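Repro:
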Amino acid sequence: METFLQDVRITLRSFRRAPGFPLTAIATNNTTRVTNEAYHLHNEEMDSLEGRVILVTGSAKRIGRGIALRLAQSGARVAIHYSGSADAARATAAECGNAPLFQANLERVTEIERLFTEVEQHFGRIDGLVNNAARFTRIDPLKITEADWDSIHDVNLKATFFCCQQAARRMLAGDGGRIVNISSLGGLRPWGDHAHYCASKAGVIMLTRALAKAFAPKVTVNSVAPGVIPFGEHDERIERLICKTPAQRAGTAEEIADAVIYFLSATNFVTGQVLAVDGGLSQK
C-alpha cells in the first residue's frame, strides 16, 4: 500500500500547476486513505502563493496597494496596474520588491486587452486576477447625468467584466486560476445618494456568481465586499457608519487583503461566493 501511495503522490504533484485538478484516487482497498492523501496534497499546493503571477488592478493606492503588498509578502509575483497615479504606483511597486508596472485606462476595452497581453508577455502566464480598480461618487439620483452613470459603470462593472474575460481566456487555455472581484457593502445594501455606484457594485456581485458557473471548474470567481475602509481624515458620514458598525471601528486595507488571499489560495470548491468584510455592518 505504501508503494501505491507513493505513486499517487508523484502523480498528484505532476498536476501541481492545475488549480482545478479533480481530486479522485481509486483503489480496491483503503480508498479513503488515498483520497485524504490527495486532498491534503492538493491543499498544500493551493495554500501557497509563492511564485504565482497575480495582477491587481488599481493597485497604486488605498485598498489595491494593501492587496499588492500582502501578495508580495506572500511570495506572489505581483503585476501593479495603474491608470493615472504613476508616482503612487512606482512607490507601491518599490515596496513590492520592484514589481513591474502596467499602465492602462480600463474604460477602454482595447487598453484592457493590451494590459493582459503585456502581463502575459512579461511573466509568461497569469495565475490570478484581483479586480480592484473602481470609482466612487456621491450624487443625488435626480441629478445623475449620462456621463456620471457611464463614468462609474465603465470602470466598476464594464472593466471588471472585460478583465475577467481576458484573464479567464488565458487561465482556461492553461492550468486554471483564481479571480477575485472587489465589490462593496454598497452592492449589498442601498445607499440613496449613491444609486449609480450601488447598481455598479450589485452588478459586480451577480457577475461574480454568473462567471463562477461559466468558468468552472478550472477557474474560480469570488468577491470581497469591503465595509467602511477610510483613508485620510474621517468626515461626519464616515463617523456615523463606524458608529453603526457592530465591530465599533473602521476596517483596514490589510483586512481586505486577508480575505483576497483566502480566495486566491482556496481550492476550486470555493467559488461564486461573496465575503463581506465590514465589521457586521451588512447585518444591520
